[in-house]
Design a protein that fits this description.
By secondary structure, the chain is of the alpha+beta class. It contains 6 helices and 11 strands. Strand 7 and strand 8 form a beta hairpin. It binds a DNA duplex through loops.
DNA sequence: AATACTGTTCGCGA
DNA sequence: CTCGCGAACAGTAT
């Protein structure tokens, strides 16, 4: 479920709450969700958190990394007692508590102070893997520059778009080119840039590419400020169980049949290599 | 009741 | 190499 903004918010939360804590116990409730030997990370202190695109790294004292991918329905929920010790989430102005029902715990980490981090994952697509440094580099070598990194330059962006005739939305969501964009932010960034999702990537002009590059960064940062997107069925929650607020600012994503905020034409939905694309047929023409 | 849909990515075969 | 499509899985909506 989560894209870059949601994973980044989780990273910030965990950095505020879990830094320097020691892993005391790990319960694996679904074998498929945890790859590696949990004994390797027992009694290890957490020294930092990092992120590449949608992947979250928990870096340990012994140089091993716990790499987490939440895929469609993964959640990380942090429970601590007493509650008063919890540092609030950075969740924007709309955050409110969501009752934790229909959870699907797959892996639970217990820490020295009795707090615990629960990995929920309804559909079991997500995973947690243990890596050494060289293994991590190898595992991430085919992932493109993170949207928020300085390597995500305008020039690299345009050159990449020129390199393929697949649809622009497919390219935006392909993590080997740029890391972090998923279906929500691809839809809304294309709308803001007045680009049809199914136009051939190499047909994007330099000027349009510049606008799209700017809008991608804008919308990703905007979502982080708004606390990320808690869309259908509360599949994204902050680790303290509160909701995000960016869903109230969706432009076209899941807005089928609603009027375009720009011209009031009704939003349409089509498929782009198997995924739903939402767009305004008036603002986002096929022939730009 | 059966089918389609869902915030993701990987592997297969063309 | 590139591409599109189904699979991995569980739940809800039509």
């Amino acid at each position: 479920m989560p894209e870059l903004p949601e994973v980044e918010l989780i990273r910030l939360f965990l950095n505020n709450n879990l830094l320097n804590k020691t892993i005391k116990k790990i319960e694996v409730l679904n074998q498929k969700s945890f790859i590696g030997d949990s004994k390797d990370i027992l009694n290890q202190k957490i020294i930092s958190f990092s992120r590449l695109g949608k992947q979250l790294s928990i870096n340990l004292e012994n140089n091993l990394t716990i790499l987490i991918h939440l895929k469609m329905t993964g959640q990380l929920i942090y429970e601590i007692t007493p509650l008063s010790k919890r540092v609030p989430a950075e969740r924007g102005i709309f955050g409110h508590s969501i009752p934790l029902k229909n959870q699907h715990p797959r892996v639970i980490f217990f820490f020295s102070d009795k707090s615990k981090l629960i990995f929920n994952d309804q559909r079991k697509f997500g995973w947690i893997k243990i890596f050494s440094n060289p293994e991590l580099v190898e595992a991430q070598k085919n992932i493109g520059p993170d949207i928020l990194s300085k390597n995500f330059t305008n020039k690299y962006f345009y050159n990449t778009l020129q390199s393929s005739s697949r649809t622009i939305k497919t390219i935006l969501m392909d993590q080997k080119y740029f890391a972090g964009i998923g279906n929500i932010y691809a839809n809304d960034a294309l709308f803001l840039s007045k680009i049809h999702p199914n136009i051939s990537s190499k047909k994007i002009t330099k000027e349009k590419s510049y606008i799209l590059h700017k809008n991608i960064k804008k919308i990703i940062k905007e979502s982080i400020k708004n606390g990320g997107s808690t869309a259908r069925d509360n599949k994204y929650l902050h680790p303290d169980g509160t909701s995000g607020g960016h869903q109230y600012f969706f432009r076209v994503y899941q807005k089928l049949g609603e009027p375009c905020s720009n011209c009031s034409t009704l939003i349409k939905s089509i498929k782009t290599s198997g995924r739903s694309s939402f767009y305004c047929p008036n603002c986002q023409k096929l022939s730009h």
